[in-house]
Amino acid sequence: MSSNYKYLLLVFAFLSIMPINLLSQITKFKNVEQVQLITDRIFYVSGEPIWYSASYSLAEDNPIDLSKVLYVELFDNELKVVAKQKVSISNGLAEGKILIPEQSATGYYILRAYTRYQENFPVYQMATEILSIVNPTHPLPAIAIPDENEQISINVMPNGNTAFRLIGPIIKEVDSVELIVNGAISNYNVDYFKNGIGSVDYAIQPNDELQLLIKLNSGDTISSSIISPDIHIGKLVKERIADEIVFTFLGNNNIDQELYFTLLSVSGNELFRSKANMIGDTASVNIPISIFDTDLFLLAILDSEENIINSSIHFIESNQVSKYTNSAINTIEPGSDFSIDLSDIDNSDYPIGVSVALSVTISQSPNLLPDYLLNNPQYFESYFDLYYLDENIIQQLEIVLALNGNNIFNRMKNSKVNKDFVVPELVGLTLQGQVINSTSGESISNELVFCSFLGNKPQFHTARTLNNGRFVIPLNDITGLYDIYLGTDLINGTGDVEILIDNGFCKELPIWVSTPFLPDTSQKELITQMYINHQINILYGVERLQVQENNKKSRLIFGDNLQSILLTDYVQLSSVPEVINEIVPSVRARKKDGHYSLIVLDDQLFIKYDNPLLFVDQVPYYNIDELMELQPTEIELIEIAPHKYMYGNEQFNGIISVTTNTGNFAGLPLSDNGVFVEYRGLENNVEFIPFSMEVSNYGKPDFASTIYWKTFVAKSTKAKIPLVAPSSIGDYDLIIVSLNNNKMLVNKKLIVK
What does 595-609 look like in DSSP terms, one character per residue? Predict the structure, then answer.
């Protein structure tokens, strides 16, 4: 049985035991894979490396592992890919570094990590980190001034209050905000935050006409245009009582007396469903806090006919959050020895990521949500990892969710998924694609596909297409970039054949609203320090060399099973047919009706076989007439297997492999049904080496922005990590994050002076 078919049987055996997603209209299977992603910091200068680590795990009720490869991509603010790579998953971890291009523009960047299996599900389930990257040598990109109609937004919060947002340069000039209801200034309480969002203790009524009265620092006032927001049916009150979250729905007597409360995670999985009867105009449910992680959740209230009468998105903080900040500040001298103590970290928190880097100040006002979260609240985790979830932050998040709730729902609803099932990579990298009829566009089943790796590390694989024309080819130890040729069996196959190849990376872009990057004073100081460090390292020729895992040696495609005929060992003949008939044993070239064919005589059974599998420079070749026109001096080597040859699940009538002196087919024309592609393999595994351990930089100053970065899989008996302080003075953060439960364990300040 071929490795390809074994692979598919293993996949389908796994799928047969997988739980079905309750939102079956979106996906057929549940996303059982979980990926947690962390980076050494979240603020970078263009040209620097981003060190990252990702943990991989499966739901406990699944007995076998799925993916062995992690795909990592870096997008800019306009969702263009600026860097991407594939890394292997080993013992539940994938680690590496991805280099920021030198010419990258200043802005927010999205680092995304996922497996191929996760491509079967909407992209908002993929692990994502939002990073800030600055190019000090380039000016900031132009900022688009929002249209007048887009500068004010007003919407209803689930609790009935009114949420609003101001957009644009006016935010910096605002002193206070009041609500105008149907032409009259209201006296309701207004909570306004300096990032432009706020809420009013006013429950919007049907047909209300609302305006904002904005008082500026100068004393002038501005009235916004009139807005009539859509209102929800009923009002929803959320409160936490002991170990439960209580949702209370306040409706009216016209609402169905039997309601269903359905709670879903943002990944689309139903977590809780309960029937609640309306008592008067009220219905409520109690949901145990134990089913929550700190995250966003969707709550839908349905009537007895499954019609949604109220829906909203909520932020819920579980009692399992144990983020804490170690407020102690250590002062150390440049170049002095110090250590990191891991003895207080619990075993249950491993694996952990440990980072010592320049202090990453997100804003001068950490109690205000940054603009990118006002536009993209679904990425709140990368921000909250650095701060406590105080009441101000939670209130702002609830306002933002009310303003963006419909947008979030629509983005998730419109998120595309693969129409064809993407096979998980159980044994490493795979090449996946589809064979179709180039004229009709219909898929071709049971078509034999050949895959040849060209160059000094050759490989050869075969696969047959399934009913939908798709094929999967497992690959061996692929590291770096390769040229690959794919073709089909022209002897027994169809005529108009086209091969469509998946590039392996997800075609769907992240869900993101472009947001201008405006550094404040504290960020500018950090940028200056990072840029100085970067320039001094260049000036002194400091290179942070990394340890790379050695590549495995390549093996012969057919092992030692072929007989080799080196033409320079024989007298030079005048033509290729003469070479084959006179020198190559058990192979004959015959010409009939003006066309050549090759015949193999089985050296054991003495049976003749037509149509042996012919290779020219590692690529299956069918135009025998063209091969016969070559000069014998253009051929270096001929290898043969003069008998039936089993390769995986396929049986060939012998093997003939021709290697030319040029190594590029000696100008022979190739089949139109084949295709050459550049295939990206795995990145070499690299390890961050602290400066003090690099002999190559002995005697040179260390001005690194990241001093230390490492992931620990399990607790070690060595509880302390010895380090050397950098040469540059400044504030550094020691951050320890758990990849097991996605929480920060330590956030400690180190001052080098």
Answer: EEEEEEE-TTT--EE
